[in-house]
What does this fold into?
Amino acid sequence: MGRAEDWLEPGERVMFRTGLHPMAFAGVLSLALFVALVVVLLIRHNDLPPATEAQIVLVGVLVVLVGSMPALLRWRHTALLVTDRHLLVRSGTFRQHTLATPLAPGIVEQESGATGRLLDHGTVTVMGPDGQVIGVAHVARARQFVEMARAQARRTATARRSPASS
It folds into this structure.
């Protein structure tokens, strides 16, 4: 799939780039804490030989590692870019979802909950020209991304009207 910058046309400049916020790992953290609790309770409340205890710890670590793979892949494969011409979104874990859409007012929306406003992240929804919609949760600097996309869409619309009126 490559980097998101590989989609740029010649001469196209990136105005703003963001990815996922560390809150995207909240589920992995809760999984790790739960597995650690189970491992500690199994070892503490059972009289097991040291080899068995080591096996329980090893299985717990493996469960956490395997459980964290989707979040790590999503972190690595997600990019949102505002360029001087387009809005580019790439997201997904194993199957990539991509969207490259010309800048226009109303193509991007942002929603933040209580932690989103506090920690500066949110869900960004982008609508493509063909009606395709991609929603990306836990986007870092989501408000800035949406503001930049809307401002760039206004500048692009003004630049398109400007030569026609002269």
About this structure: The first helix runs from residue 26 to 44. The beta strands are 14-18, 79-83, 86-91, 97-102, 108-111, 121-127, 133-140. Residues 12-21+78-165 form a domain with the PH-domain like fold (CATH 2.30.29). The chain has a mean pLDDT of 84.
